[in-house]
Amino acid sequence: MKTKAVRIPQQKRSIEKKEKIIEAAALVFKQNGYFGTNTAEIAKAAGLSTGSIYAYFSDKKDILLACLAQIGNKLIDDICSEIDGFSVTDDVLKTTVNAIRVLIKFHDGQSQLYHNEIKSLQYRDEDIKNHFKIIQKSMIQAITNEIEAHGYTFARGQEQTFLLYQMVEGIQDELTFENTPGINHEVLVDECARIIVTMLKKNTD
């Protein structure tokens, strides 16, 4: 069966309509979970017909990928902007803490159900898995470029940036869902930042 071609918006109105669908879907996914949401509910949240959804997206997974891409790209921009603020503060530890807090915002408003579904899809679905690989690579590269522009580098780049990503991802989960009783969140963020700072090496060239 031939899949119907979706529209690539060119005009401002079409671009805005597609963005409206993505924003509505992100909200509904967060509230109801991915599997508990259908395209009719997304269309309703966006104030559009279901037919309008299929003019821009081939299926629900296509919408999910667009949501994840939008969130990932904004996250990268916000982190780079925070790191760029180091020029003003000249405080590596404070800048690192602030960058971690930007990353933590990724989970804002996200239900445990939706979070677990996305984690599961990373193992079960090749498209979702590849998306997260691309976002992770882009984020690490952007952060590396930004800190190098401010005179720092990671002493053991590939290994340390991998550890950084995994560590912050774990902290995101803990601060959002509070799975471990008794953990002081402020201390957790501060200790993570101190570990990251020890990974950095100031360039002398």
Structural write-up:
By secondary structure, this protein is mainly alpha-helical. It has helices spanning 12-32, 39-46, 50-56, 60-84, 86-89, 92-104, 112-124, 126-149, 157-177, 185-199; strands at residues 152-154, 200-202. The protein starts with 11 loop residues before the first helix and ends with a strand. Helices cover 74% and strands 3% of the residues. Helix 1 packs across helix 2 (39-46), helix 6 crosses helix 10 and helix 7 crosses helix 8. The chain has a two-stranded antiparallel sheet. The mean pLDDT is 89. The longest helix is centred in the middle third of the chain and has 25 residues, at 60-84. It contains ten helices and two strands, in the order ααααααααβααβ.
Topology at a glance:
Elements: H1 12-32, H2 39-46, H3 50-56, H4 60-84, H5 86-89, H6 92-104, H7 112-124, H8 126-149, E1 152-154, H9 157-177, H10 185-199, E2 200-202
Antiparallel strand pairs: 1-2
Helix pairs in contact: 1-2, 1-4, 4-6, 4-8, 6-10, 7-8, 9-10
Identify low-pLDDT runs.
none
Number of strands: 2
Order of strands, main sheet, comes to: 1-2
Oligomer: single chain
**Run of helices and strands:** HHHHHHHHEHHE
The proportion of residues forming helix, as a percent range, comes to over 70%
Rounded to the nearest angstrom, the distance between the terminal CA atoms is: 60 Å
